[in-house]
Amino acid sequence: MIRGFDTLNRNIDILQKRQENISANMANVNTNGYLDKELFQSTLKSVGLHNYQAGANANQRHNIGQFIFGNQIDGSYINMAAGPLKETDQTNDFATNGTGFFTVRMANGQLGYTRNGQFTVNDNNQYVTQDGYQVLNQNNQPVQATKQVPKFKIVNLANPTTLTSQGNTYYTSTTAPTTINNAQITRGFVMQSNVSVADEMVALMQTGREYEANQKVLSATNETVNKAVNQLGTVQ
């Protein structure tokens, strides 16, 4: 019975993390360049159970079988699918026609990658992000604002496991990305979030039902423990 409480506690912790992730995705539905994040979980390894109630005197080892104490969050992955393009008619807005990323130089000098092409122009006539990060060309130099579509450094980050989110739609990679030499860039458009509201709503309802199921099991387990403590002890 006590094991039951441990298993339920683990399950509810997992559900809380899933709900937090869904909330974060839903909060960024309208964030340009945001990438949907998903959690994945696995079942814990089974363990052997036994007691010493075998034999004529009920004092020999008896192997009961295997038991699994629940699930665990194994990690997360980033959905690399392209989001829909939205027309803005703003000359400083750009979108990649695919799954490529713009390359930027972050405040600490590290290269970062984003799909949010909603840029501004600084005092040096250079394109910068909304956070003031320089947008780079293929030589890792700042891109100058011109009437023509600039030659941005667009890269392919095919393996989402190498990415680390830095917040505000910026990512860094543990491996060198591949430069897309002939990337198609559309001016006056931005790439929107790739979060599917319908999928998130389904996930939210499923999580809610799992919460209810765990609450019912918790109530039944609590009632069983209550009887064991308060009633069995009174039997003459």
What composes the largest sheet? 5 strands, antiparallel
Q: How many individual β-strands?
A: 17
Question: What integer value in Å does the Rg equal?
Answer: 27 Å
Mean pLDDT: 90
In whole angstroms, how far apart are the ends? Answer: 23 Å
H and E order? HEEEEEEEEEEEEEEEEEH
The domain tally reads: 2
Output the number of helix runs.
2
Structural class: alpha+beta
Characteristics:
Flagellar hook-basal body complex protein; five-stranded antiparallel sheet; 2 helices; 2 domains; flagellum; alpha+beta; 236 residues
Description:
The protein is an alpha+beta fold and 236 residues long. The protein folds into 2 domains: 1-79, no CATH class; 85-191, no CATH class. It has helices spanning 2-27, 197-230, and strands spanning 37-43, 47-54, 60-67, 71-78, 85-87, 94-96, 101-105, 111-114, 120-121, 127-128, 134-135, 154-156, 163-167, 170-173, 178-179, 185-187, 189-191. Strands 7, 8, 11, 12 and 15 form a 5-stranded antiparallel beta sheet that branches. A hairpin with a 5-residue loop joins strand 9 (120-121) and strand 10 (127-128). The protein is elongated, with a radius of gyration of 27 Å. The mean pLDDT is 90.
